[in-house]
Amino acid sequence: MAVASPIAPAAEDTTRRLIDSHGRVIHDLRVSVTDRCNYKCVYCRTGELGAQYPELAIADYLKLIKLFVGLGIEKVRITGGEPLLRNGLIELIEELANLRTLNGNPLDLALTTNGHLLDKLAAPLKAAGLQRVTVSMDAVDAPTFERITRVPGSFHKVLAGIRAARDAGLTPLKINCVLLRGFNDGEIEGFARFAREEDVVVRFIEFMPLEEGRLWTPEIVVPLKEIVERIGRVMPLVPMPAREASETARRYTFPDGVGEIGIIAPVSQAFCGACSRVRLTSDGKIRTCLFSQVEHDLYGRMRAGENDTALSDYIVKTIYGKEARHHIGEPEFLKPSRSMVHIGG
Ligand code: SAM
């Protein structure tokens, strides 16, 4: 009778991978390291300093992220609030840059920022091991930009941040612009020129009902089709092929290949079927969808002393229950209890 060798490697335990009940493999984790923000963008915040959620120690984010990486996460994006406000960020990036995925590769490590503090931090972040940044910028016209952020002088700070990031090699550099009809939809054509002149990827994002106030209506959303038509009237757009199935942006370039435009259309052309993403909030809760009605207190379990195996099992089980899709625009849609700044965009 054959006896199993005691040194034979254990068969791979595929039950401890992040797969949801709809068959989607989850390999992308967004981690909010603070829900504080130095901007009060009119479409995101009410302007009042609302309740803030607790922040974890940097070492605790690291412990939790390591558990996710041990279960197959390959991409980690640090976000907030405004992540550059967070003490200990550089140390966190250094530690994350040393982690390896289950395939032995470095993590795909990125960060989303409003760019206000990036002029000073781009080079240290790159040296710490950060690969890419996405900068949020909702207008290329300075007065319009500052009407949105409600912070005087912010446009030139962000522009300096974008240029510092490019010089530091935090590339490809993506600029995210949330379009709202009547607020900044006059910026579409200017952004197309900006993409070409600054050699950045500009991505327009449809506005989702995740604001602190009550601004969202279907009419305020500028849909993908309209953006493509409007840019096309000034400069023809050439579609680019998707790089992976879970890519959220439809990508376009121009006939001379200079400049890239992406359009992320979660409202008019939802991509939930290809979603590969989950979130960890600044207070250590798992959110399996931006629009989840429930949160899963991973940090609470860690603080209560659960060991890594129990915590990993909890992550696997939680992600198995990921929602099939969002219900924006449908009668049964319920706005989540947290807004984007408190979830981590
Ligand atoms: N402070 C960082 C920043 O500005 O990028 C990270 C957090 S911010 C919440 C992340 C992104 O979410 C930003 O690009 C912001 O424009 C976007 N965002 C905020 N509210 C949104 C909404 N209701 N719909 C779509 N995007 C939104």
From TrEMBL:
The gene is moaA. It catalyses: GTP + AH2 + S-adenosyl-L-methionine = (8S)-3',8-cyclo-7,8-dihydroguanosine 5'-triphosphate + 5'-deoxyadenosine + L-methionine + A + H(+). Belongs to the radical SAM superfamily. MoaA family. InterPro entries: Aldolase_TIM, Elp3/MiaA/NifB-like_rSAM, MoaA, MoaA-like, MoaA_twitch, MoCo_biosynth_MoaA/MoaC, rSAM, rSAM_sf. The keyword Iron applies. Keywords: 4Fe-4S, GTP-binding, Iron, Iron-sulfur, Lyase, Metal-binding, Molybdenum cofactor biosynthesis, Nucleotide-binding, S-adenosyl-L-methionine. PROSITE patterns: RADICAL_SAM (PS51918). Catalyzes the cyclization of GTP to (8S)-3',8-cyclo-7,8-dihydroguanosine 5'-triphosphate. One of its GO terms (molecular function) is cyclic pyranopterin monophosphate synthase activity. SUPFAM superfamilies: Radical SAM enzymes. Its EC number is 4.1.99.22. S-adenosyl-L-methionine binds at residues 43, 81, 136, 208. Binds 2 [4Fe-4S] clusters. Binds 1 [4Fe-4S] cluster coordinated with 3 cysteines and an exchangeable S-adenosyl-L-methionine and 1 [4Fe-4S] cluster coordinated with 3 cysteines and the GTP-derived substrate. NCBIfam families: moaA, PRK00164.2-1. [4Fe-4S] cluster 1 binds at residues 37, 41, 44. It comes from Telmatobacter sp. DSM 110680. It holds the Pfam family Mob_synth_C. [4Fe-4S] cluster 2 binds at residues 272, 275, 289. GTP binds at residues 30, 77, 112, 174, 277-279. This is GTP 3',8-cyclase. CDD domains: Radical_SAM (cd01335), Twitch_MoaA (cd21117).
